[in-house]
Design a protein that fits this description.
mainly alpha, 2 domains, about 160 residues, rod-shaped, Type 1 dockerin domain
Length: about 160
């Protein structure tokens, strides 16, 4: 049989038995009443349950804010309290050879200071004869400048 030979079903023509219809109407029309005591008890339990979860969320929220603040303070404290030691070749108990300005390290400013003293024709101490040629001159300035910019910083050659 083809589909055109089948009778068309109209949904409005479908009906349920009268007894089933009556039972379904009675089932859904019946309203059950709840006593005030039961209603109060259920409401109280619901408030306790949902109030507790709200309290837990609030505590977790404040703990996370406190942890973030503590971490930020720890980073600030750590970054300001850590002291970086100078490179080991700079730390010397006595005067550093080539440290003309007594800054604690041999840098390009020492070469500049020595060059200025040479230009001013000041009498210079013998310990500033860094290349040991018997006199303090431009070669000593060059030796300090080389030591300031070399990879083995602070070592005179």
């Amino acid at each position: 049989m083809s589909t055109s030979d089948q009778p068309a079903h109209d949904e409005t023509q479908l009906t349920a038995p009268e007894r089933l219809t009556a039972d379904l109407k009675r089932l859904y029309l019946h309203r059950q009443t709840v006593s005030e005591e039961v209603d109060r008890s259920v409401s109280l339990m619901a408030r306790r349950h949902f109030g507790a979860s709200r309290h837990v969320r609030s505590v977790v929220r404040w703990l996370s804010v406190g942890a973030a603040a503590a971490a930020a303070l720890l980073v600030v404290f750590w970054s300001t309290s850590v002291h970086h030691a100078p490179p080991p070749e700079v730390v010397v108990s006595a005067a550093i050879v080539g440290d003309v300005d007594a800054s604690g390290e041999v840098d390009i400013l020492d070469a500049f200071a020595l060059a200025r003293k040479l230009e001013d024709a000041e009498p210079l101490p013998g310990e500033w004869d860094l290349n040991a040629d018997g006199e303090v001159n431009r070669k000593d300035v060059d030796a300090v400048a080389y030591a300031a910019v070399s990879l083995r910083r602070g070592h005179l050659q």
